[in-house]
Amino acid sequence: MTVSPKDLLNKNKNLNKRIELDKINLENVSIKDLSYNGDNYNEYINLMSLLENVTACQVSDAYNSISRRPGTIQSIKPINNQKVFGSIFTAETTSDDWGTSALAIDAAGEGDILFFKVDNEDKAIWGELASTCAKQNGIKSTVIYGSARDLDAMLYMDYPLFASNFCPNAGSALGLGTLNESIEVEGTIINPGDFFIGDESGVVVIPQQLFSQTMIASLGVKLKESKIIEDLSDGKTLAEIVGLK
Length: 245
Prior knowledge:
Layout: H1 5-11, H2 41-51, H3 56-67, E1 77-78, E2 84-93, H4 99-107, E3 112-118, H5 128-136, E4 141-148, H6 151-154, E5 161-166, E6 178-179, E7 183-185, E8 188-190, E9 195-199, E10 202-206, H7 211-233, H8 238-241
């Protein structure tokens, strides 16, 4: 195997480097910079420095300032209170069919977030075994507009899980669903490649075409709230800070 000078430089890149919030530069950042491709080191580091420090609430506020929509899917809640962000791989199936979950695990790419739309919550389409396999494949998280199960394991597994419900029963390995096509959940169209962020407060979906604008706005929200916290520490009241007094 031939090793080029560029390969050596990329090998020595510190992908764990992070930049202080007030020095983050998002000018050239796009949704492709969610992963490091060898040529986007500065963009990747700046984006990670932001996303590791913002919450779903702050991203929702930022997106709302741009689109007048919150980006939230209200029915979907965190199961094990872990934060995650990334690009969406969609799947749609019925609650009788957990086989589509197995197919989605094999079809999704490393770093993807699986987002399932299920027709009802009568049966679980995801559980401990699926999470274990997905994590081994490099998938970051699973989000289900439907039911999950195996909470005895999922609550303690290092694999972020979000769902609208949970139950103990499951269907069969039918594999009859669709993969990586547009889905509609609670009036929101979710396309493959859209951005997802979820944490203890809930989940937010941002269309990929508005990703860059939303990230810039999210940085503004974060800096503003950080300044408010500083002012509160200095003895000002929230009413004074927001101009009510």
